[in-house]
């Protein structure tokens, strides 16, 4: 998945395709991020990986600081507000899993509420980048 993300998202960032400027990629310390294969791929993208130790993610990772908690809370509220009629049940009466389309719609709905200033504030609080 990391390779898919690097190719389909990371390379599409401004300046990412031609790899002209050196970049900094801040990632947490989960095992898939630490493989030699991923490190090599990141290096090929003219990028320096910075690994955040697990216990410091909530302090150093900008989106964890500014976006993720409220985003997840709001998404949970959407799920809790759904009525039984909106959710289908299996033959045994259990709630059926949400479709990928439903989940994508809920995520998109909540992502629209995330403002650029919210993301910028996360970087400021993590003291990453230049002050604006």
Write up what this structure looks like.
The chain has a domain at 1-52. 49% of the residues lie in helices and 9% in strands. It has helices at residues 2-8, 31-34, 36-44, 57-60, 62-66, 68-81, 100-111, 116-125, and strands at 23-28, 47-52. A two-stranded parallel sheet has the order 1-2. Helix 6 packs across helix 7 (100-111). The protein starts with a helix and ends in a 7-residue tail after the last helix.
Give a brief outline of the structure.
By secondary structure, this protein is mostly helical. Helix content is 49%, strand content 9%.
Helices, strands, pairings?
Blueprint: H1 2-8, E1 23-28, H2 31-34, H3 36-44, E2 47-52, H4 57-60, H5 62-66, H6 68-81, H7 100-111, H8 116-125
Parallel strand pairs: 1-2
Helix pairs in contact: 6-7
Strand content: 5-15%
Structural class comes to: mainly alpha
Residues in helix, %: 40-55%
Query: Major sheet, described briefly?
Result: 2 strands, parallel
User: Largest sheet, order of strands side by side?
Assistant: 1-2
Helix and strand succession?
A: HEHHEHHHHH
- Which stretches are low in confidence, meaning pLDDT under 50 for 5 or more residues running? none
Backbone shape: globular
The gyration radius over C-alpha positions equals 19 Å
Tally the beta strands: 2
Distance between the termini: 33 Å
């Amino acid at each position: 998945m990391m390779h898919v993300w690097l190719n389909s998202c990371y390379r599409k960032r401004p300046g990412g395709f031609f790899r002209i400027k050196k970049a900094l990629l801040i990632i947490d310390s989960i095992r898939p991020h630490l493989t030699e294969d991923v490190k090599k791929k990141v290096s090929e993208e003219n990028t320096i990986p910075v690994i955040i130790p697990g216990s410091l993610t909530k302090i150093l990772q900008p989106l964890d600081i500014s976006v993720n908690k409220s985003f997840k809370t709001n998404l949970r509220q959407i799920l809790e507000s759904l009525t039984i009629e909106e959710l289908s049940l299996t033959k045994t009466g259990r709630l059926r899993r949400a479709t990928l389309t439903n989940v994508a719609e809920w995520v998109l709905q909540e992502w629209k509420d995330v403002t650029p200033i919210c993301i910028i504030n996360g970087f400021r609080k993590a003291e990453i980048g230049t002050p604006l």
